[in-house]
Design goal:
This protein is α+β, with helices and mostly antiparallel strands. It has helices at residues 2-11, 107-117; strands at residues 14-19, 26-37, 42-53, 64-69, 78-87, 101-102, 105-106. It is globular and about 60 Å long. The two termini are 35 Å apart. The model has no long low-confidence stretch (mean pLDDT 82). Pfam families: Ribosomal_S17.
Length: 161
């Protein structure tokens, strides 16, 4: 059954989340799957990681993306390509209605309620907020190279995981 799943993954689009990687011109995508344990007859989550060709650097860490298998492997690791960024990280959209969401409520409902009760100065305005990435290099370090820290040194490196 696992062989059929691997063959199907080559033909179809997969939905996954971008995670940090050290590779240049590639994105590491985590695809969540449910695998049946035949003894317990229960499904358990299994994560699979794919390295995807992303020369335009479309996706950042945390984005939900669509990936598709390449007809021929680029390298030993890079087997897929990023087709499209479906949802940007932090900009949550309800998939059923297509409306933007803030926490557990629609943004337009929050705006309508603020208009009814008199808009407060402390209310955050999503329409005037800058897009993600404007703090790149200041507070947003998702574009910096990351690595796993195996040793503890005196100097603290902010890019280590």
């Amino acid at each position: 059954m696992a062989r059929n799943l691997g063959e199907a993954a080559k033909k179809f689009l997969l939905l996954g989340q971008c995670v940090p990687t050290v590779k240049q011109n590639a994105a590491k995508i985590r695809v969540k799957r449910l695998e049946l344990d035949e003894n317990l007859l229960m499904y358990f989550r299994k994560d699979e990681f794919y390295y995807c060709h992303d020369p335009q650097k479309m996706c950042k860490t945390g984005d939900i993306v669509l990936i598709q298998a390449l007809p021929q492997k680029l390298t030993k690791l890079i087997t897929h390509e990023v087709k499209e960024v479906v949802y940007d990280f932090g900009d949550i959209t309800d998939p059923v209605s297509g409306k933007k969401v803030a926490k557990d409520r629609y943004r337009e409902d929050i705006d309508r309620e603020a208009e009814l009760y008199g808009k407060l100065k402390s209310t955050f305005d999503y329409n005037r907020a800058p897009s993600r990435g404007w703090q790149d290099g200041k507070k947003d370090f998702t574009s910096k190279p990351t690595y796993t820290k195996f040793h503890v040194f005196d100097k603290n490196d902010p890019y280590a995981i």
